[in-house]
Design a protein that fits this description.
The chain is α+β, with helices and mostly antiparallel strands. 30% of the residues lie in helices and 22% in strands. A five-stranded mixed sheet has the order 3-23-22-19-18. The longest helix has 25 residues. It is globular and about 70 Å long.
């Protein structure tokens, strides 16, 4: 790696939008990155980056990968070059995220009550009621503030023109916010000279904001709610984040066995001082394992009676059971219609054009243009099952074609979007790598959007898959001004 040169001397983007150089007309970006960062020594940056990754591992900031009979703790690789977002750009995405969450909460309330949107044919009824995340047990259950998705992570990209587009809405149990906060702490320790005087909006109050929003959705009549974070336990891949969030909120971290529900449908937590009532559970456990009285009888992770307490109005569960319907990639394709139906508005943040393989016209188009499209199974997450047509082999295209024909309802397809790039430190120096963004939003009486978010970066040259399980890393995200 060269040791003495301007950081941007050999940096170039052949096509697409760069998050730094594409915003060099903005004085904040220019001053912070093209001037302040440009004169840095590459060897020094490489040493700092290695130090950052060692610190992440020593602090236990890891996720668990299960491969065969092996269990491996890994850090999410951290890139030391931050990703800037201007104040104007953040205001745009903030308004768009708030709009989407408002519409999704109205949609979830409707499908679990009168189902007007299904009766009116705006969204196909079987797409909802036949969805594996649809829970008939939630029918008619009223929730405080009408909030189903208290914590949402919206995955965004930018196209070649720098326009934000939404890839998906993570409404079930979005992860990664611990990296957002810890990445910022790393930058403050490792790069105080770069951050000095920079008007970067803070992210460290996330835990306080989360506690406030969960308190706003406590059961009626509860003035000082007891909140807990419910984890599946130490073997869960995101256990570090569960510990982190409980600490940041200042609430107990519990497992299902630590709680019980009495004959009056009140939830209690077992403590050394005796049982204490619980009013709000931020759960990081799937619906199926939540309550063995109602769902999987063999679940050792849940607490019997939680659904009784929820239906009795004595418990709030965040995110609410059954919220995963709105997390579905097929429902995502109908979001423009959902927003128009409930809010009488156009989408402020557009979707990537989506072909729904369950619809005959779209199915025919997808099968004829597989080599141009990105095909996604609707029930998968973490980047699994995705076939990137322009980069796929003939064998891979033939296999996905057969899979689509066998089960069209399980697939959507989207055009290949040339994701924006951000300067990233590599063994050759500074190189453009594709990025996305997951801002986190919290909803109680209203919605607050964290000023920043998780920027994931595809560390492999040419890759557009940024998921940690597929070799991606992360960057600190700076909302300026």
């Amino acid at each position: 790696m060269p040791s003495h040169q301007s950081l941007f001397d050999d940096y170039g983007v052949e096509n697409g939008f760069c998050e730094v150089t594409g915003r060099n007309d903005d004085p904040d970006v220019s001053r912070l990155f093209l001037k302040r960062l440009a004169g840095r020594n590459l060897r020094t940056l490489a040493r700092r980056q290695k130090g950052a990754e060692a610190e992440l591992y020593n602090l236990g900031i890891t996720f668990t990968v299960y491969s065969g009979d092996k269990t491996i703790d890994r850090i999410l690789p951290f890139d030391i070059v931050p990703r800037p977002i201007t104040a104007a750009d953040f205001a745009e995405l903030e308004a768009g995220v708030i709009q989407r969450i408002k519409a999704l909460n109205l949609f979830l309330h409707d499908i679990y009550h009168d189902q007007n949107i299904l009766k009116d044919g705006v969204v196909p009824a079987d797409l909802v009621t036949g969805n594996k995340y649809f829970l008939k047990e939630m029918m008619g259950v009223d929730l405080p503030q009408g909030t189903y998705t208290h914590i949402c992570g919206t995955d965004l990209i930018r196209d070649t023109d720098g326009k934000f587009l939404v890839l998906e809405d993570n409404c079930r149990s979005p992860s990664g916010v611990s990296y957002v906060v810890e990445n910022r702490h790393l930058m403050m320790r490792l790069f105080p000279d770069l951050m000095e005087g920079a008007k970067v909006r803070p992210v460290s109050d996330y835990g306080q904001r989360l506690r406030e929003k969960l308190s706003e959705t406590a059961p009626d009549g509860v003035g000082d709610p007891r909140i807990v974070l419910m984890t599946p336990g130490i073997y869960n891949s995101a256990y570090f984040e569960h510990v982190f969030l409980a600490r940041e909120m200042g609430v107990p971290l519990v497992e299902g066995r630590d709680m019980f529900v009495d004959e009056n449908d009140q939830v209690y937590m077992r403590t050394v001082a005796g049982p204490e009532p619980v009013h709000v559970i931020y759960r990081r456990i799937d619906d199926a394992f939540l309550d063995p009285e109602v769902f999987r009888e063999d679940s050792q992770l849940g607490t019997p009676g939680l659904m009784r307490a929820l239906k009795a109005g004595k418990l709030t569960i965040a995110n609410a059971p059954g919220t995963g319907v709105a997390d579905d990639k097929a429902i995502y394709a109908y979001l423009p219609r959902i927003v128009r139906y409930y809010l009488d508005e156009d989408l402020k943040l557009g979707n990537v054009h989506t072909y729904i393989c369950r619809e005959k016209g779209d199915l025919a188009y997808v099968l004829d243009h597989l080599d141009e499209l990105v095909v996604k199974p609707v029930g998968e997450s973490g980047g699994y099952g995705i076939v990137v047509g322009p980069k796929a082999s003939r064998k891979e295209l033939d296999e996905v074609a057969e899979a689509i024909k066998d089960d069209p309802s399980n697939y959507i397809a989207q055009p290949m979007i040339n994701l924006s790039v951000c300067p990233t430190l590599t063994s050759e120096g500074l190189s453009p790598r594709h990025v996305d963004l997951r801002p986190f939003a919290l909803t109680g009486k209203d919605t607050w959007v964290m000023p920043g978010g998780l920027t994931r970066v595809a560390l492999r040259r040419g890759s557009i898959i940024v998921n940690s399980s597929q070799g991606g890393g992360s960057k600190d995200t700076w909302v300026l001004g």
